[in-house]
Design a protein that fits this description.
The chain is mainly alpha-helical. It has a single domain, classed as ABC transporter involved in vitamin B12 uptake, BtuC (Orthogonal Bundle). Strands 1-2 form a two-stranded antiparallel sheet.
């Protein structure tokens, strides 16, 4: 049981890494971005290219995944997404889902339709013993990565001028603009950061989830569930939601393989019935 919970926590940390950028951008600009998983897919393929074609190590490949996904996210934000911020939610959904379909077709053309082969570096393979439990090194690395990113984000939001501007814009965009904050530039930087984090999550998911052209569409619902259950515009909310979803999904599939995949949806419905705005909601968003 403890091992299953730990695996669920590792899975939840992966969902958090990919989804936290979507939570902040949705809370900041109310942009319904169904294409957020595309950045995770871009990061995953970028990491594979960095390791297989350029001979880089796994950690350096994670850096490449962040940079490439952040650049792609920034380009798409300038060329496409910022033009529909003030549009209807339907316009945002149609544009972003269109990006998903284009990215899926492009990835299939470039890399083929099958799941990409990936081998973990030797230092992430196997298990180790901790308090009598056999824990996987790879899943432990996922947990550690999620904790490090969470700490850095909290420090960045609470201790820097950039973080103060983000908090101000999340609380009240008009007031932030009235104080002279360039919200458009702020959102560009935040969007790029969120895309980069999703890219790192995509690279880290190569072993657990695999990488294929349908990745963005296949796992879209999980990323949206993290934001819906956790509350858009927060950091702790998506972390709590991702851990909850990860543990429930993993435990359900392990103990109830026939119906376990539906448990996570039941939990989502129950949480949203009790907390329609998510587990945590920033000030001014309730």
């Amino acid at each position: 049981m403890a091992t299953v919970i730990f695996d669920g926590i590792a899975y939840g940390m992966l969902l958090f890494l990919i989804s936290v950028g979507l939570s902040i951008t949705l809370g900041l600009m109310n942009f319904v971005n169904l294409a957020h998983g595309v950045f995770a897919m871009v990061g995953g393929y970028a990491a594979l290219l960095a390791m297989n074609s350029w001979g880089l190590g796994f950690l350096l490949a994670l850096g490449v995944a962040f940079v490439v996904a952040a650049v792609v996210g920034g380009v798409l934000e300038v060329l496409l997404f910022r033009h529909v911020y003030r549009g209807s939610p339907l316009d945002q959904v149609l544009l972003s889902i269109g990006v998903v379909f284009v990215a899926t077709a492009l990835a299939s053309w470039l890399f083929g339709p099958s799941v990409q082969l990936f081998t973990l570096p030797t230092w992430l393979q196997g298990q180790y013993s901790f308090l009598g439990l056999a824990l996987g090194r790879y899943r432990s690395f996922l947990v550690l990565s999620g904790l490090v990113v969470m700490v850095l984000l909290v420090l960045g939001v609470s201790r820097t001028a950039y973080g103060a501007r983000v908090r101000a814009a999340v609380d009240n965009v008009r007031a932030a603009q009235g104080l002279g904050i360039n919200v458009q530039r702020l959102f560009f930087l935040t969007f790029s950061l969120g895309a980069g984090l999703a890219g790192v999550g995509g690279a880290l998911s190569l072993e657990l989830l695999g990488m294929e052209p349908a990745f963005a569409l296949k796992y879209m619902i999980y990323f949206l569930m993290v934001v819906a259950v956790g509350g858009a515009g927060t950091l702790l909310g998506p972390l709590m939601a991702a851990l909850l979803i990860g543990v429930v999904d993993m435990a359900g599939k392990y103990y109830l393989p026939a119906t376990g995949a539906f448990l996570v949806y039941i939990v989502m419905v129950l949480v949203l019935l009790l907390r329609p705005n998510g587990l945590l909601t920033p000030k001014g968003k309730s």
